[in-house]
Amino acid sequence: MKSNWILTIALALITTPFAAAAQARPAKQASQAAPDAPVLTGIHNGDAAELNDVLAVQPPVPIGPPDLLKAYEDAMASTAQGFNAQVSQILEAVQQKKITEEQGEYLCKEAYQLAMMQFQVLSGLHDMLADEVSQTPAAAQSANPAPAAGINGSDFHNAIHRVASSGGAI
Question: With contact defined as beta carbons under 8 Å apart, do 87 and 111 qualify?
Fold first, then answer.
């Protein structure tokens, strides 16, 4: 019985920092205000409304590797936050005697295994992409070496080929 509570409390303590980090990120994103629509002058009212509608639509921006890395980090934090919420619900159900302690322990183990699998997959994807991103700039620099200047200052080298004499008459 005590081991169930110790397991539940340990899991809650482990996931709390991840949940707190996940809740702090949306607050930072919400503080960034969208840019105001441009002021349209010299245009008729009907045209201005149509242009405002067109200008209000933001074109989709392609997602790059840094955006994917951030998405993986957000998904990992969301996984931890979801696990924390599940354990809290299970703990509440056990305290209210809706389920037995054995059922609560089983559900906590299942939730933990699911969260760990999700976290490991996301962490692996994040690490692979981070490695790929870190290797990409080094490869780009070595792929375009600075051209070596020849005798006349250009890249063109005139090679002089000599034919070895075999000693025979031609």
Answer: yes
Contact 35/85 with Cβ under 8 angstroms? no
Ramachandran sector of residue 20 (left: φ over 0; alpha: ψ -120 to 50; beta: rest): alpha
pLDDT in tens, 136-159: 765 555 555 555 555 555 555 555
For 88, list phi and psi in degrees, rounded to 5.
-65, -40
Residues of the chain with pLDDT under 50: 27-28, 30, 40
DSSP state of 3: H
CB count within 10 Å of CB 160 equals 4
Considering only CA atoms, which of 141, 131, 3 is closest in space to residue 65?
A: 131
Spatial distance between the Cα atoms of 123 and 125, rounded to a whole number of angstroms: 5
How does DSSP assign 50-117, residue by residue?
Answer: HHHHHHHSPPPPPP-HHHHHHHHHHHHHHHHHHHHHHHHHHHHHHHTTSS-HHHHHHHHHHHHHHHHH
Which token pair is 13?
């303590």
- pLDDT tens-place string over residues 34-48: 555 555 455 566 677
Closest CA to 131 of 123, 120, 142: 123
